[in-house]
């Protein structure tokens, strides 16, 4: 009953095995009966959950989440399944649904705790991959804007890597890879933002350190071309022409169609220089590796 093709809701529906049509119908009918049995004042009276079976309580939680869109109440039902029937299969299902519902409600810390408890209790279960994926998502979905602290980004990367490495054949590995790449790109964007900040203020050495990090550690991201161009700017500002030319040469070899290369080329040629490898700086080493394929 979760909606959205390919959504996490559809995945968790499949993952938990769902509820049988008869079971869910029984839960709905029970709710209807209870709604009709109102006490004084017209308020419906719910029987003690201790009088219901594990499946009945679970069905109530699922119905409340899907049809009434009340995650807080749904979590109460799922928690009660685990408390009243701790050794049942429904308790296992209820625990993963707690993690899912907390995440859906953006209560990420609670989602992580529930997912981790599932992994602690059922490490070999077929749904452990989804629990690990939910744990990673609870970090990933908290990644803040580029200008803020990136601690959660590092945690998201680590958690996503664990999904990829521990469950490479699972249906969650592909999604984890895509999100890993995006989180990795996010870190590079942070380095670029700080580097541009220093560059605009004439703190060239500090800006070079940031752009160098992108070129060396985040070379597979979308920010490498700009990082090389900014290195051309910073090195020329310092009068270090060998480094500027080498950065331009790497940029031209790997990103010749990029507007950043066009800007670097104009900047170099306006000073009588050209993009070519020169000197023996760290960039010369990058040039030998990326252009000449010399990795030793």
Account of the protein in words:
The chain contains 14 helices and no strands. It is mainly alpha-helical. Helix 4 (71-84) runs antiparallel to helix 5, helix 11 (224-238) packs antiparallel against helix 12 and helix 11 (224-238) runs parallel beside helix 13. The longest helix has 28 residues, at 173-200. The N and C termini lie far apart (57 Å).
Layout of secondary structure:
Blueprint: H1 8-15, H2 21-36, H3 54-66, H4 71-84, H5 89-104, H6 108-121, H7 128-140, H8 151-166, H9 173-200, H10 204-217, H11 224-238, H12 241-254, H13 259-269, H14 282-290
In short:
Belongs to the BamD family. The protein is an all-alpha fold and 296 residues long.
Order of helices and strands: HHHHHHHHHHHHHH
Largest sheet geometry: none
Just give the CATH class of the largest domain. Mainly Alpha
Radius of gyration: 28 Å
Kindly, what is the distance between the CA atoms of the first and last residues, rounded to a whole number of angstroms?
57 Å
Number of domains: 2
Mean pLDDT: 86
Please name the fourth-level CATH homologous superfamily of the largest domain.
Answer: Tetratricopeptide repeat domain
- CATH topology grouping of the largest domain: Serine Threonine Protein Phosphatase 5, Tetratricopeptide repeat
Total strands: the figure is 0
Strand content: under 5%
Helix percentage: 55-70%
What characteristics describe this protein?
lipoprotein; 0% strand; Serine Threonine Protein Phosphatase 5, Tetratricopeptide repeat; 14 helices; mainly alpha; 2 domains; 296 residues; signal; elongated
